[in-house]
Amino acid sequence: xxxxxxxxxxxxxxxxxxxxxxxxxxxxxxxxxxxxxxxxxxxxxxxxxxxxxxxxxxxxxxxxxxxxxxxxxxxxxxxxx
Length: 81
Description:
Layout: H1 3-17, H2 32-35, H3 38-52, H4 67-74
Helix pairs in contact: 1-3, 1-4
C-alpha cells in the first residue's frame, strides 16, 4: 500500500468508529489520541489487525500518536498489501 492508501484506510477506519468528526480534513500532525477515547483507539488497533493483519503491540501504541506517525509505522508493515 502507498502512504496515501494507508492514510485513506486509517481515515475510513476512524470515521467508521467515530462518525461525528470530520476526519477527512484532520491535520496529519494533530494528536489522534487527543481526539479518540481510549476504547475508540483500541477499536482502531483491532480493525487494523482484522482488516490488514497488522499486529500493533501495546508497546508500540505511541507510534500511532498522529496520522502521520501512524502512516510511518504502518507503511513497512503494509508494503506488500
